[in-house]
Structures are given as structure tokens and as C-alpha cells.
Write a structure and sequence with these properties.
The chain has strands at residues 3-7, 10-13, 18-25, 33-39, 46-52, 58-60, 68-72, 79-84, 93-100, 109-111, 115-120. The chain is mostly beta strands and 121 residues long.
Length: 121
């Protein structure tokens, strides 16, 4: 059964760093586009990043560009990381990863259950 699991969320101070993991089971990520999304309380879900797991080209939202970076586990091809630094209060949200068949992170996807990131001021 195909499944995605996020981990690594938690409480971090303003200006700190955190790395989230997105791990697949039942399939490998190398043929998929992986998107990170987040949803803050009372707000709509927004895209954070999107890119093909295998080619390293990633789109980042303007709000995180230069602070968030994607990296992959090329040995296993089943884990993708979202490295977050210089965290701000507005980064507080539940973060989700999703694996899409389409390069632009649209359409059918497998979704993880989400992991909470809270940035304290």
C-alpha cells in the first residue's frame, strides 16, 4: 500500500531551523513530483515547494525562497527533506508532503498526514 509519512515537526524559536522528512512506503519517489504544502489555522492550504524528485529543479514559494531547501536521499529514493532555516512566526502551520504523477504538482497525489511546525516568537 502506497503511503507517505511526514516527520520532524515541532516547536522552534524564531530564527531557528528545522528539517522535515517525507518518507514513502510501497513505492519509490524517483518518478514522482513532490510537493510540500502548509496550512495555518484559519487559512487556506498553500504550496511551499514543488519539483521532480529526480532532477533537482524545485519551485519555491516567494515566502520561503532562500530559507527553505529541498534535498533527497538518493540511496533509498524514498525520502525527501525540507530544510527550513530563519524560521518566522508566519511559518507556523501543519506541513504536508504529497507525491504527484504530474510535474507541476497537480492532480492525483498521495498525501501524508501532516506534521505541525510551531515557531515561537
Amino acid at each position: 500500500q502506497e503511503q507517505l509519512v511526514e516527520s520532524g515537526g515541532g516547536l522552534v524559536q524564531y530564527g531557528g531551523s528545522l528539517t522535515l522528512s517525507c518518507t514513502a512506503s510501497g513505492f519509490t519517489l524517483d518518478d514522482w513530483a513532490i510537493g510540500w504544502f502548509r496550512q495555518a489555522p484559519g487559512k487556506e492550504r498553500e504550496g511551499v515547494s514543488c519539483g521532480m524528485y529526480s532532477d533537482g529543479n524545485t519551485w519555491y514559494a516567494d515566502s520561503v525562497k532562500g530559507r527553505f531547501t529541498i534535498s533527497t536521499d538518493n540511496a533509498t529514493k524514498n525520502t525527501l527533506y525540507l530544510q527550513m532555516r530563519s524560521l518566522k512566526s508566519e511559518d507556523t502551520a501543519v506541513y504536508y508532503c504529497a507525491a504527484f504523477r504530474v510535474a507541476r504538482c497537480r492532480g492525483f497525489a498521495y498525501w501524508g498526514q501532516g506534521t505541525q511546525v510551531t515557531v515561537s516568537s
